[in-house]
Design brief:
101 residues; 6 helices; AhpD-like
């Protein structure tokens, strides 16, 4: 993030990861669910891609991530959800998408 965004990226990373994500009221897994939901709602595809990778590291399965995005389609609209699913499927191993089709 800092390489692409310079000082803005550095400050953002320090605040988000050092202060917000470090709080213990929610697990990292739960924070990933929240982040995926919000970024899908906003249509923030670049950030969504980063957070999908993080969600996998934080214990979410590919099937769970796809289900979150599918469920969001009911609330944020199908265009946002389908755009998000494209991002998710570009990141997940091909077998995950095939299992959930």
């Amino acid at each position: 993030m800092t390489a692409q965004l310079g000082y803005l990226g550095e400050v953002t990373y320090r605040w988000v990861m050092g202060e917000i994500w470090a709080r213990n009221q929610l697990s990292l897994r739960d924070r990933s669910i929240v982040a995926i939901s919000i970024l899908t709602t906003l249509g923030a595809e670049r950030s969504l891609a980063t957070h999908v990778q993080g969600a996998l590291r934080n214990g979410l399965s590919g099937a769970e991530i796809e289900e979150i995005v599918s469920h969001l389609g009911l609330y944020v609209g199908l265009p946002r959800a389908t755009d998000a699913m494209v991002v998710v499927r570009e990141i997940l191993p091909p077998t995950v998408g095939a299992q959930n089709s």
